[in-house]
Queue: 2 jobs
Job 1
Amino acid sequence: MTFRFSRTSFRLTRLRPRVLVLLATATTTAALLPLVTPSDAAVPGRHASPVIDPNASPMSPHHGVAPADAMRPTAPVLAGSGWSVTASGTALTIDMHRTDVVSALVYQPRRAGGGSRVTEYAIRLSMDGRHWTKPVATGTLADDTTAKTLNFAAQGTRYVRLSATTAAAGHHGWAAGIERISSSSSPAPLASRAAVQLLGDPGLTAPSTASLPVDGWTVSATDEETAQANDRAANVLDGDPTTVWHSRWSPKTVRFPHALVIDMHRTTAVSALTYQPRQTGANGRIGTYAVSTSLDGTSFDAPVASGHWKDDATAKTATFTRTVSARYVRLVALSEAGQRGPWSSAAEIRLSGPSDPAVSGSWGPVTGFPLVPVATAVLPGNKLLAWSAYAVDRYGGSNGYTQTAVMDLTTGRVTQRRVDNTGHDMFCPGIALLADGRVLVTGGSNASRASIYDPRTDTWSSTTDMNIARGYQAMTLLSNGDAFVLGGSWSGGDGPRDGEVWSASAHTWRRLPGVPAEGAMTADPKGAYRADNHMWLHATSQGRVLQLGPSKQMNWITTDGNGSITPAGTRADSQDAMNGNAVSYDIGKLLTLGGAPAYQDTPATRRAYTVDLNGGGRPTATRTGDMAATRAFSNSVVLPDGKVAVFGGQETPVPFSDATSVMTPEIWDPATGRFTPLATMAVPRNYHSTANLMPDGRIFSGGGGLCGDCATNHLDGAIFTPPYLLNPDGSERPRPVITSTPPSHVALGSTLPVSTGSPVGAFALVRTGAATHSVDNDQRRVPLTFRQTGEGSYDLSIPSDPGVALPGTYLLFALNADGVPSIAKVISVG
């Protein structure tokens, strides 16, 4: 292919310095807007210290400090020159007067006087100022002065509208301030101080896209090195990251610009380009770039993406300002990221297009929370309980109180509460869902404390302190309704972390000297405080527990008397897999996913294993299909049909960092042992993130961070709709409906009559989950045997073994012949 373009045709305006956007109208209007001084200016992801206990202890040294990349926002602050704003009613509308990719709005509440604070909000986008999207982000903000980063799926837009739906309690609120200027709705210039900023393309995998297959593609370049190395353009499509394209450097260096053109040999909808820098050496990493498209390979449109990539080895994605129909995609390199020379290189180039909802599922808007949801539990009444630590965005010390929130999954509203009465900072705890539906939370920052949340009364209370102080411990309910805990050297001082059991009847703890934690530890080089964390526990019959990870050694644990721990073999050829997880997808069958040999700074694995307990003796561990991505700090959820979805994580786990984030979820099918990619996420979900199955068959995924003054706090979540609920056009598939009202409680071994409005092919119970630090030990799926007694009438057989149907709260799903689940009925079993 012959290229004809001038060097100046690809000249980009030098990136403007980061400036702050003042949302003001005329002089009289400006006095009413929530301005901040330059020293108070909002910095994305950075927070002013909240009003907290002045005697609060600093962050635990066990966590270390947030890495340098956690202090820098991933997405660039967009320059506001040429922008204007209108204020009308309870909304502010920013007109950028150009189309740009936007991924977040940063809102700095008023610092003085306490008023003029938004609590509930909605963000909408528009290309023309007349036709607006449905909200891309909604939520509830903490009533404090910290800057709030309101994330949403990165996409091209010209207009961004922030609507304040309510103000902080006891304040007139920012919404009221806007009402006073509603008569002033004409555009006004923007100045240099700000209450609001917009963030651009974060360079992560474009949200809600799917990678396009490269079959039949070809690629050409303006120049390539062939004299001294085989660094041809074709290497960017070969799937091998060790081979590279490199611009020509022998016998004479070709200077910028350098261009690659991919010919897909078919016209395809394209919305993003992903660039993988070379993995051997830094020379040639692309810095400033532009991407354009063409139907004929000769006439290329104006760039659909441009910017500057960071000087590191991580993959970068350029999100297009709009989805385009194209055959050719051209990437032009205009500078070298580290200014090392006039070279360009690439290991791999991939293109993405809009995902098919029937194959990949879809994401709802990002919902803001008034805290980082570090721990979450599904409650009856279609609600989700979440909590962080003594503060909404940071942890440290033993302060005796916890910030909590409850999300109403029906309305999306989130309410916040500080829990003081238990004297318990519940950061980094163990969690077990009790047989009666209450939530038992142990240890963490207040390492010996134990608290119980009762969803029936929406109250917290204390129970007896543990005998051994712990943090990062593992917990599970036992088949007899008691709760078992093991490990947890993160807090509570030195000493052994033997097992102990909480009695549901006496509310007291009993030590198990026969269950030392040492036999269940990983070989982490940093010792016990990293080696006995976040264990994967699965309760079985007669009060026994299988500890199946993250250590490669599995163990059977008994909990009667002094207890015992007995080796149960290794997890096939798996290494230690800290910060991976295990999910019970069928009776006596579990799937383990990912993890890393050490807690952090060690590459994770993509491996997955099944562990089968049904052989009568030693568990059988077998390697199943690998995930497409390596993951640690991810979260996994079992679905009503027995498939398992995994969200987020990092290729190399580093607490508080968003580097090497895995943005594409995957779903595992037990029938094939294979993983399938799902629609990509809008926000990274790594350390301190969670995921939970909801009663409507959708999944909540949220959280990440909690590092105080950092850019990686994610005070939000989003709802994922799995592909089993969707048609290719995104509309919902018809669901079966359970028309009868089951009793609130069913006994083990009983028969449960159920009526449905249409034929049903399967029924399943899924125990409600409680997740933190990648672990949700109590979730499990129990497929039910049944017989049809009439048209739309069925008798379901509830298992008689409490080791199969662990006592507690379950979601009862009916599934039709196509695997589409009903909205669940919530019942108590046991």
Job 2
Amino acid sequence: MLTLTLIVLAVVGLLVVMRREAGALAALAVTGLLGLVGLAAGAIVIGVLLLVAAAAIAACGLPALRRRWLSPRLFAMFKRVAPKVSETERTALEAGSVAWDGELFTGRPDWRKLFAYTDDGLTDDERAFLDHQCNVASGMCNAWDIARERADLPQELWDYLKRERFFGMIIPREYGGLGFSAKAQSLVLQKLAVNETLMVTVGVPNSLGPGELLLKYGTQAQKDHYLPRLADGREIPCFGLTGPRAGSDATSLPDVGKVVRREIDGETVLGLELTFEKRWITLAPIASVVGLAFRLFDPDHLLGDEADRGITLALVPRDTEGLEIGRRHHPIGSPFLNGPIKGDGIFVPLDTIIGGEEMIGQGWRMLVECLSVGRCITLPSGATGTARYAIGWTGGFARIRRQFNLPVAEMEGVQEPLARMAALGYIAQAAVYQTANTIDHGEKPAVPSAILKSQLTEFQRDILADAMDIHGGKAVTLGPRNYLGIGYSANPVAITVEGANIMTRNLMIFGQGAIRCHPYVLEELAAKDADDVGAFDRAFFGHAGLILGNAARALTQGLGLGRPAVPFDDVAAPYAREIARLSAGFALTADAAMASLGSKLKQREMLSARLGDVLSNLYLASLLLKQWQEGDRVEHEEALLHYAAALLLERAEQAFAELFDNLPSRALGRTLRRVVMPRGRRWARPHDDLTRTIAQAVSRDSALRHRLLTNTWDADDGPQDNPLARYNGLLATQERAEALYRSIDKAHAKGELPAEALHPEQRLQAAVERGLVTEDDAAFMRQREAEVLDMLTVDDFEYDAFVADKSKVLRHHPA
């Protein structure tokens, strides 16, 4: 009995020490004291074993001892197996900053750090712009007109965007821009997502491109000249990075520049001779100034001893002799302006280099530092805005569309995708807003930018697919009345650009995060590069303590022991504790995968992707809870929180399960499963009751629907029809209409109305004649049914309307 007691006390004591990462001295005290107690009490065997364990802990854990024999050996082994980090990778790793993503990598996230990013909201100017200028711009758009009739935005819209400085949101006021916060920029793009061409046209100049690069790295002369002209639209920028052989692997771009001397107007000018071919460059067909990335060489050593000067960025005016620009690509589903740019030996002066000579060779660093912010905002905001509109349109359509004598919103087969759309949109709103808020606090979130770009554009894909399914024939028939189909067909663009989602998920989220966000890995690699065994010792054994701590936290929290304190209300607290539990499991599993696979983990992309999926879902769930905690709640929002949080945690556990099943070491996989999920999986898909509640709310004139549709163009105040405003108007009178539908349908079923009264208008007239409906109600229903029918109507065209070459029209029935 004494032996068992000592074993239990030792296990409990060591688990407590490990959970708190109290260090080797504390572990030594536990094992040493219990060993002495065992010897004194006559339990010789367990006493000796505990003292041996104490000796091992002292030899391996006490710095003065281990540095003499253990650390040098471990260091030599580490240098052999550690992954090689290229200069390109190192630049990417050092770009940006680490914030909440780093906390999740520790396995013991400190929620106070997340709440330290307080939200000051929008300024009065930002709110006014969002409410007025964005509404005006949105009101000028019709998807069919833009995509099929003109393949461009209308001229009056271009003029308005320039006049109101939409292209200068990130440019400070002193240069004539709007100087908006990241939150305001995001909300503007969400509202403009009513039309994907409009959103892209405004978003790209405010994202990665000449404006941001000039702000951060440009010379004062470059800033003074270009920034005011970019802000008011006198200059339209584009940025040429990708090409035929350099897409996701942008660092392998084959475009070159050579430092040369040229005679111009009788003077010798030092400049660059550029040869390049770029593709998929947004705004290139109309750009007046081209940002260009290329590999610079100085073969004649005109600038110094180095011949290969590295990736460099320059600004090339459109009128540069030899620049081939103006042709267009045809992006799927959307006519946003995108095209190729070519140059063969064109010459530009040296002062076109962004930042001047001192920034030669710094191009890749400049790009990745800017991308960490821009990628957090443009496409994630567009996806979130698309979700807002899709939820609004689809909820409205599902309520007014009647089949089998009831709105299709009452059918559970429709309620399931409708609730899923609402949950994904709710998560996206929280994630993009809270991440933008961290940017406003000075963060440059490199890993979160990859998470948001890939996850939210995938959400957009799922939301639009669900919206198309619910709309049915209304959405698959294109024409001016179709507000959904063109945006749906354009969705692959968002999936592909700014780092294709396949690459981002498989290589970037965990591949970059494992080194960038981990508390110790970057220090260990730096110690290896510096050949500093002392620095390695500190980092490695700190890392070892973290691994043991995460193992103890994952196991004990998985068993329901020692719940972590979390600063949330009773609704959100259980989810926060689960995030903390799974964070410990994630950190432990990440370390186990890196230790067992070493540099091979780079090639095991499916494993890396699943680790990235765990991190992504924990990150999104964290921001969801912060948004809940800081926001004003509305009716039924609690149901949506439960649905959304359960969905993310279920996805995280699914990624864990797939990872454990596929680790090369089956023993390691089984061990990790038992530690991380000792009681099995806890989370399943959200309950049907939540689905019904949410679907009902988003398809009615409810507070939850209004919350989800905040910052959309929902007013009937523009020259173009606004289907969202029309749906909202119909839902505002839905309760009165449903009561009349029930009364009339019941009378028809009982034979009180003629059997041949099959159309709603016929039944209504018969009900009036029999005194079942008042004239006032009849007038209301006639007007409503006319509006409903108009909203359900689809377009038709002349037989040969879609044939570009009329000579090729087949007349199957010539008569």
